[in-house]
Design goal:
α4 crosses α9 and α7 packs parallel to α8. The protein has 10 helices and 10 strands. It is an alpha/beta fold and about 325 residues long. α4 links the parallel β3 and β4.
Length: about 325
């Protein structure tokens, strides 16, 4: 129980005890005076009691004593209300000022040796973001969304680690194979990039959207879209593409295709193993203006003891005033 609750209970009990003590003391003092007074004084007292002004004074005093007991009882009741922690319902509309980022991972056979490294880079990127919504889509001959855009970073980290563990091939069917082998060919980069671009929600809102594409660009088979066409599609949706290239510098033609596709959208291509890659991507994404996104309205219950506390303080003040009037 909170400290202020205990304090209010103690105050209420103190008020009740003081009121009781005052009543008992006043009664005892009146009885002692009556018993010790001489007969002549008693006779005069009887004549005094018959005076209208005396009777009015007695009634006023009795009213004050009754008021003390009533106000004390009210203070005790209000103290109980405060101790019970009155609550009220409140509707809140969370607003996330964030950017949207879709991690797009090529899980084809040619990427098997570097995908664990790519996922480690994704985890490093996660440490640099704050408030951004992040999703993950993997692809080979067909794309699969691992998780949608979310700002639940512990969940994102858990999912990245889970996918990374699938590359240990301890299971008969690794998780990154499930759903990614449903089409002809392999490593269909254009189709994968287009699928990642389509994973952004709230299409009617003008938001900062980025795809971080990790692929070696080794196409095997006929894709629906080329990487250039997929980049054009991303550009039309105002999505910037940042490419992570594990073979940067080894194959000039492949690297040039990735660089041109990313540049077409306003993004860039980075070597996977460059020491500044993570920081550069984070900096580029955070240059884009964050846009407010209203979350789902939530009803929460909150403590609302203010009125009860105020009334308790007023009743205590009233008790003290009445007590002072009685003592006059």
């Amino acid at each position: 129980m909170a400290l202020n609750t205990w304090w209010m209970i103690l105050v209420a009990l103190g008020v009740l005890l003081v009121a009781t003590a005052v009543g008992v003391l006043l009664g005892l003092r009146g009885r002692e005076r009556a018993e010790s007074a001489p007969a002549a004084l008693v006779s005069r007292a009887e004549r005094l009691r018959s005076l209208p002004s005396f009777r009015a004074s007695v009634r006023r005093r009795m009213s004050l004593l009754s008021g003390i007991l009533i106000v004390g009882a009210i203070a005790v009741l209000l103290g109980g209300v405060v101790a019970a922690r009155p609550m009220s319902a409140k509707t809140i509309q969370p607003i996330n000022n964030s950017r949207d980022i879709m991690l797009c991972l090529d899980v084809s056979g040619s990427m098997s040796d570097v995908d664990v490294e790519v996922l480690s880079v994704f985890e490093e990127l996660l440490k640099g973001f704050k408030g951004e919504r992040i999703g993950l889509t993997i692809f080979n001959s067909s794309p699969v969304q691992v998780f949608p855009l979310t700002d639940d970073y512990p969940f994102v980290k858990e999912q990245l680690q889970r996918i990374r563990s699938s590359f240990d091939y301890n299971d008969e069917t690794p998780e990154h194979w499930v759903g990614t082998l449903n089409g002809p060919g392999a490593s269909l980069i254009g189709d994968g990039l287009a699928a990642c671009t389509m994973r952004f929600d709230h299409a009617e809102e003008d938001r900062s959207r980025s795809v971080i594409l990790a692929t070696d660009n080794e196409l095997a088979g006929a894709s629906i879209l080329t990487i250039e066409e997929a980049a054009q599609y991303a550009k039309s949706k105002k999505v910037r593409v940042f490419a992570l290239n594990p073979v940067q510098g080894k194959d000039a033609e492949v690297s040039a295709q990735l660089e041109n596709a990313a540049a077409l959208t306003g993004g860039r291509s980075y070597a996977l193993r460059d020491t500044t890659t993570v920081g550069d991507i984070i900096a580029e994404i955070q240059k884009q203006e964050a846009t407010a996104l209203k979350g789902q309205a939530q009803v929460v219950r909150v403590d609302s003891p203010n009125l009860a506390i105020a009334l308790t303080l007023v009743s205590i003040l009233g008790f003290l005033v009445l007590l002072w009037r009685v003592r006059l």
